[in-house]
User: Fold this.
Amino acid sequence: MAKITYEKPIVEMQGDEMTRILWDWIKEILIEPKVELNTEFYDLGLTHRDETDDLVTKEAGEAIKRLGVGVKCATITPNNQRMEEYGLKRLYPSPNGTIRAILDGTVFRTPILIKGITPYIPTWTQPITIARHAYGDVYKATDVRVEDVAKAELLVTKADGSEAKYPVHDFKGAGVLQGMHNTDKSIDAFAHSCFNFALSAKQDLWLGTKDTISKVYDGRFKAIFAEVYEKEFKEAYEKAGIKYEYTLIDDCVARVVRSNGGMVWACKNYDGDVMSDMLATAFGSLAMMSSVLVSPDGNYEYEAAHGTVTRHYYKYRAGEETSTNSVATIFAWSGALRKRGESENNAELIKFADDLERATLTTIESGYMTGDLAIIFKADGITPKKLNSRDFLKAIASNM
Ligand code: NAP
Ligand code: MG
Assistant:
C-alpha cells in the first residue's frame, strides 16, 4: 500500500535521554511504515544546543511560527550537575521557555484516559484540560529581602516622566517583599487561546481567579476574559452548546472535584503549575499527560508533559531492559499529524492519527502495557502484562 503523504512539513524537535530513544522507535515502528514523514528537523538534544550556542532552539521556535505545527521530544533543562555531565559552555535556559516566549502561547495539558486506570476521583469520567497562562506573575517577579525596619512603596514612572507612588508596607522588622506584573496584551492572548481551544474541543471553559482579594490584578483577568467572550465568542459558544463561566479560584477547585470532568480550566501561571501536577497524579500517571502549546495566531506545538526519564536512560545505557511509557510521546506525534491533516483537509492523515491513538489505548486496555501502568491497572478478567519499551510499541503496531 502506498504511504500517506502531506504537503507542508511539520517541525520535528528531537530531544534527550530515554525519550530520545523512544522518539526514533516510535517513528520506525509506528509512523514511518504508513506515513511518508515530511519534517523540518531540529536536534534540540543538549549536545547540539551546546554546539549551536542554543541557536537551534530559537530556529525551531521560528520554524513553528512559519510552518504552524511542531512536535517536540522532552529535553533536559540544564542545571550545574548537567553542565558538568555534558561539559557545557554555559547554563542554557529551558527550551520550552524559549519556544514559549517566541510563540507567546498558552500550554494546554490533557490526561489520556484508559479503561482499567481509575482516577483517584472516580467521578472524573472525562478529561480535564488545564490551560496555563505561561507568562508573568511570580515567574517574572522581583523578590526582595527586607533586613530590618523599613518602609516599602511601589513607584511607577510613566513615559512622560510623571510618577505615582503606592504604599506597600511599613516594616517594623525583617521580612520579605515581592513585585510582580502582567500585561493586557499577554492576558488577551491567553484569553483568545483558551476560547479557541475550548471551542474546538467543544468543551466548557472555566476561569478561576481571586478577584475578591486581588481586585485590580486578578480583576483584570476576569474583565479581559469577559470582554473577549462577549465580543468574539458568545455566538459561537451558544451555537456549539458550550458555556464560559467565571468563578472564584477556591470555588472552582471545589466544583472541579465534584464534576465529571470534560472542561477546559484556565489558570493563572502559578495556579496552572500547581493544578496540572495535581490533575496528572489524580488521573493516574504523569506519563499519561499530553501537552500542547497554542499561540494566539494559531500555531501548535505538541509534546509529552513528562521529562526525559533520566533514571530509565541510565539503565538503557547500561544495557539493561527498560519499560518506559511512550504513550504521551505517541500522542504528541498523533496530535501534530492530525493538526497537519486538518490544515490540509487530508482525511487519510487524520484517520491515521485517530487509528494510532485508538490502537495505543486498546493495546493497554487489552492488558499489554509498560511497568508504570501495570502496577495501577485493574480490569475484570485481565492480568496486566508488562512489556519492555520496544515490545510495547510493537504490540501497538500489530493492533493497528
Ligand atoms: P521525568 O523525566 O518526568 O521523570 C520522573 C520520574 O517519573 C521517572 O523517573 C519515572 O519514575 C516517572 N516517569 C516519567 N515519565 C515516565 C514515562 N514516560 N514512563 C515511565 N515512567 C515515567 O522528570 P525528572 O526526572 O524530574 O526530569 C528528567 C529531565 O527531564 C530533567 O533534566 C528535566 O530538565 C527534564 N524535563 C523536561 C521536560 C520537558 O522537556 N517538557 C519536562 C520535565 C522535565 P520511576 O523512575 O519511578 O520509574
Ligand atoms: Mg510544576
